[in-house]
Fold:
Amino acid sequence: MKQFDLDRLSRLNDIKENDDIKALSHAIFPGTHCPLFGVAMIASFIEDLVVVVAGTQECTYYAKDFAYQRQYGKDNFYSVVTNKHDITFGCEDKIKEVIFEIDRTINPKAIMLVSTCVLELIGEDFVGLKESIQDEVNAKLLVVPTEHFKCNSHIPGMERSLEQLVTVMEKCDIDNNSINILGHRQHGIENTELMKLLIDEGIHINSVIPSKTTIEELRFAPRAKLNIVTDFVALPMAKKMEDIFNIPYVYFDKHLSIDRIRNSYKKIEEFLNIKLLSKLNEKEAELNSLMEEARKILKGKTFIYGNTPMMAFEISSFLCDLGMEPILVQVRDLYENDSIYMEEIKRHGHNPYISRIANIAPMQSIYDQCKPNFYLGHENPMNLAKRNIIQITLDEVTKKLGYEIPIDSIKKILLSLEQHEEMKDKMKKMAAKGGMKHGLL
Amino acid sequence: MDFYKFFPTPSDRMGTIWTLSTIKDAYIIEFGPAGTTHFAIEGLMQLNADHNANVYTTHINETDISFGKQDRLENAILEIDGQHNPKYIFIMASSISAIIGTDIDSICYEMQSKVNAKLIPITTGGYSGDHTLGIETTLDMLCKEAVKESENKIENSYNIIGNNADIFNFLSDVEEIKSLMKNGFGFDVNTIFTAYTSIDEIENTANANMNLVLRGEGIKAAKTLQKNHNIEYYYGKPYGLEGTTKWLRELEKVLGIKVNESYINKKTAQIRKYLMTFRFMIREVENKSTILVGDYDVVIGLADLVEELGLKVEAIIVKHKPCKAIKKSISEKWASLIQFDISERELENYLKSTPSYLLLADGSTLELENSSRLSMQIANPNFKKYSIYPHTPFVGYNGTLYMIQSLFELNKANPRY
Structure:
């Protein structure tokens, strides 16, 4: 059988909808995470939220493990395990009993009830269940379905759990000098370029959702004058808050292009009636100068995109701005603004292959076929070094917002290029001694 | 009620994946949502085990479910067979495909003529029992489907059945078993089911002279090997000084070879003085009761060691259902103290209301409220322990020394009477 063939993939020009994105192989390794994982990523941050995962032993076991590790044992994840009888006759009574017990014994402010694949498949009505008992419990009940057979990743779980948090919010008097940060999953938002500027202007953070908030604080989230969405997974939440509480939002993700960052700052200026851009002239100049320098070095260099904290098409478009040429871009799905970035890549005259993410099994053969100069994302460095491919990981920028993202990204790319030969030698020596187990230096 | 603050008892499917995941060159295709497979692969990290097999997912969507489509699986089978030319491909149902009635047996039957690999259907969908059932069935399946007739019997060799990734101290325990067999009889290990092994080693299982079964779930597989390949087996796991010597003596009978007496004498002399010192140390402890919680063969074995140390076994709580073979083998000595598969709440209530000197338990039980003075992890699930050094066994002579050392340290850290 022929090794994995790029021609089974669609090219960028042919991508119109999600179904146009194909996987490189039928047998996938390791595959994407499921929406339950997405829920765990969001809900485990909120320490006074009790999460009840209902499903198979596998779903509940692994979700608990992840939540425990992430919150160092301070998580509030509980499990209701369904058995054969529940699959046949339903498990409504069982779930109700658990909710009543948690409400009585723990007395939490909110309980997030998470249904998983099997229960969604058999049509267990969790929303109906919630409505039937909400008046009988003190805790606010939130329901998040996480069936993985309707989607391709963990993202819907993150979106839905954030959106559900809106149900615990209450109408408040607006504090004109406060903002909410939505979707941010790192600590230290105060240290970002964006927040430093806002703090200088007398703006303070009302709530950082989900990474620094509680159910009690969420009640007062609508006090903010503006929601700043720093990750696209919080867009449904922001829209819901706009609908219900009339709070506007600005989408200020980990953007890379000067125009997008400038526009985002401009919108914040307008909503909050403050001046920010005038303080960013130096940063803009630094970015412009760095981009010029990078173009001279990176022009014509090819890349395969694997993963970074940024949006796949957005960063690919930015790399095209730097003169680089995409061969293959791996993506989860098509998201709200992707059409904009895809058009930008096309305008550069590129038509890369597009494949599903989280399938590293066929990549070894693809590297040999494509021979890219760069690979962006996590991969065993040895696999790349032996093929003379420069690896770029951009995890560092996860904690940044504003011009610091493209500035740091370019610096990292140039540094990786500069250190490549040295890194390659290290890898070769390591390989000669038996290599690495998990691809970590 | 099936309600847990920590972990539920793992399912048969989880047991199957854990058993297969440590086999090099094993190819496994799961027909189900990708997240299930991804979680399972990462779950092995909690067990401190290396993921040596090649596990793939097909993913599955609404159309596949609504129309009973299985072309994803068929294509994946053809692809793996064509790309990797494996000897076997294990085809697994997921909970979803099991519920919608995907007939994995028929798919394998239909596809078998189109591929070179032997297709082995695994139909445990997660609803037939706990992980021990999956481990028992998988060990037996490997012996039935992959073990070949021996063309080259290896003198003085044995297999180990039941050293699997789910056992908390599998990495060190197997080294001690190897050491006992080498020092006691000059025997070398042939194949270890299944942490760690390879498909080739499993095929060559019948080259060994005997099978050592370390857990009840391995007895079925051992009987299959006895029936199909005429290999005798011995079931038991050596704990404590007396228990280890007894284990070696019984193996003497099975093997028909005299054990190395000087080895036994040397280790006995080495351990005895520390046993005495430990007993002396706890002489004034009023409540010497010990509660053991974990996997059957581990807690039963450690209960003997606990007694040898001069402590009193208060309760033995097994965190899974007993397999058929286990049910028959529970000794009278422990029958009144042992409980199987009690709920997390019952367990917590019991631990809270029962003051004890020592709690030997799994990682999640140790998180429950309890009234034990000292505690030590001896089983999975695991939250905090990292295990890469393979010489801290619980079994055998060195395991006895290691346990005494650990308990000395614990006692010193909690100097209260």
